[in-house]
Design a protein that fits this description.
Elements (H helix, E strand, L loop, with lengths): L4 H13 L9 H13 L1 H25 L3 E7 L5 E6 L5 H8 L4 H14 L3 H17 L4 H20 L4 H25 L6 H9 L3 H26 L1
Antiparallel strand pairs: 1-2
Helix pairs in contact: 2-3, 2-8, 3-4, 3-8, 4-9, 5-8, 5-10, 6-7, 6-8, 8-10, 9-10
Organism: Actinomyces naeslundii
Keywords: Membrane, Transmembrane, Transmembrane helix
InterPro entries: Peptidase_M50B-like (IPR049500)
Amino acid sequence: MNPSWTDTWNDLLARASSVVGLDPGVLWPALAILVIVLAWAPARRWGRTLVTIVHEAGHAAVGLMVGRRFLGFVVSRDLSGHAVTAGKSTGPGRVATSWAGYPAPAVLGAVVVLLALNGWASAVLLLGLVLLVVLLVMSRSVRTVLLVLLVAVLTGALWWWGGPWRDGVVAGVGLALIVGAWDSLRDVAASRDPQQDHRTLAQLTRVPAGVWLASWFLVDAVATGVVVLALRDLL
């Protein structure tokens, strides 16, 4: 007999709200993903796609919180990105919006790992799907639409079929975000592009660009340290 809509809805609610204490053995998928990302260059490169999406979402989220309008974003062929918000061209809101991109992957990665380690992976995936739908609507190129759609499909598949591996895989994705945050910080520190965020911040505030780089380094370091301590307690 085919399941009724009531059965399907109840199943969706159960999947979304399931909170199960993590068996430390489920950490191995997370560590396996971390090793793959660190050791296999193609995996690390494609992981940057998710990092770029989160980076631009960080700009957009903080921009909305300070009263700016989010007009859209694009992911370029080299997997860099660009988000467009509208509002005052100077002031604290513009500074906060410009600063938020680079620390976003590390902060989100740490939050995802901690939630997954405490059995909230299903809820994390469901919330991620909702946010990806919003980002899909705000995508402003065919490449961006396809990449966001791909991430959304993989997220939905993991939410629906992840089973006992779901927590570990979600924690692994969080670890990959932290690795990508360090990679992007290294790249921006080496870049000579005058349009990079730390140089934009220097122009907006007269605070040296190196200070903004240091602030991102500090956030990444704190996020990494929190995750290392959490993993150590479970190993």
